[in-house]
Amino acid sequence: DKGNYKHFMLKEIHEQPAVLADCLRAYADGGALRLPETLDFRGCRRVTIVACGTAYLAGLVAKHWIERMARIPVEVDVASEFRYREPPVPEGTTAIFVSQSGETADTLAALRYMKGKADRIVGVVNVATSTIARESDIVLPIHAGPEIAVASTKGFTCQLAVLALLALKAAFDLLGRDPAPDLATLDRLPGLMNEALGAEPGIESAAQELALASDALFLGRGAMSALALEGALKLKELSYIHAEGYASGELKHGPIALVDRDMPVIVVAPTDPLLEKTISNMQEVMAREGRVVLLTDAAGAKAAGQGPVRVLTMPEVPAILAPMIYAVPLQLLAYHTARLKGTDVDQPRNLAKSVTVE
Ligand code: M6R
């Protein structure tokens, strides 16, 4: 049931504050983590995350968190590559498979490859009765509720929330890092996400311009480079506009050749220690008449000055929340662009909700 919403996707975007609150409640309680006891990272030397599509991009964000907080190396790969590369698996590897449906053929095949090779297999799934859930040693359901729209939205942000908690657990087990301060920060996520949803009117007008474009670039740094990829993926699958996501620092190594006055460049840049560098990338785009749409907070908007054709202002958020919060305007931008173009938002052409054949 779509309720009062025109599409399942829009409903699922707006459900995010509520389902994230459910998800956090399931795994954290009064400043303490409540993850399965068997999820013990002592002795773990490296993490391998395997997934497809948007779930893979959640894995890329998790790499930043786990490496930064728990100081162990994290490899992230798309399942279709991983399964056929048959990579060596060093001792002390924890393997994490991320899948909304829990039925994605390549992800399942990669999981089966890792059986007997990894110390433990963790499934981060939405469908708790799925094959990936059944075949994992430890299952962490993301509690997003049914996701009907083909484009993943609340699935992505709930995957991120679970992976953030898992990173906190790894940091506690390996380094004795107290999770309580970050858990208190995560408690603010539903409220801040409601604020991010409040930016929808501005995003609708940005979508009117974007709907006229035939190509778009998305840029970001650090964990936000994965969000740039997610923004580009959402836009292409929904609106059929050709879009590419890049780590901002890669701009000079090729994609800047595409920039001209017809090229919208969506820059995902919350205030953080890398903001200045991203602003300088943005200036390079503007010097070539590229049309910058900047997603940032009030301080970032001030630092960026007059250049961007449009600034979409997000609430100021602690770093650990930024990937979830900035997913929202990217989802809404793709949604409204597609709606204006009249494409089938919930069921885009050529796509299936669950890719059970390779
Ligand atoms: O069910 P899964 O999470 O394993 O699905 C993975 C991808 O097929 C999925 O995320 C796909 O990229 C979505 N259509 C993205 O919106």
UniProtKB/TrEMBL annotation:
GO MF annotation: an example: glutamine-fructose-6-phosphate transaminase (isomerizing) activity
**Could you state one GO biological process linked to this protein?**
fructose 6-phosphate metabolic process
Q: Which GO terms describe its cellular component?
A: cytosol
Question: Sorted alphabetically, which keywords does the UniProt record give?
Answer: Aminotransferase, Cytoplasm, Glutamine amidotransferase, Repeat, Transferase
Q: What catalytic reaction does the record list? A: D-fructose 6-phosphate + L-glutamine = D-glucosamine 6-phosphate + L-glutamate
Specify the SIS domain's residue ranges: 37-177, 206-348
Q: Where does the protein end up?
A: Cytoplasm
Active-site positions, per UniProt? K353 (for fru-6p isomerization activity)
Q: Which superkingdom is the protein from? A: Bacteria
Chief location bin: cytoplasm
Q: What is its EC number?
A: 2.6.1.16
Biological function: Catalyzes the first step in hexosamine metabolism, converting fructose-6P into glucosamine-6P using glutamine as a nitrogen source.
User: Can you state the subunit structure given in the record?
Assistant: Homodimer.
Q: What is this protein called?
A: Glutamine--fructose-6-phosphate aminotransferase [isomerizing]
Q: Which gene encodes it?
A: glmS
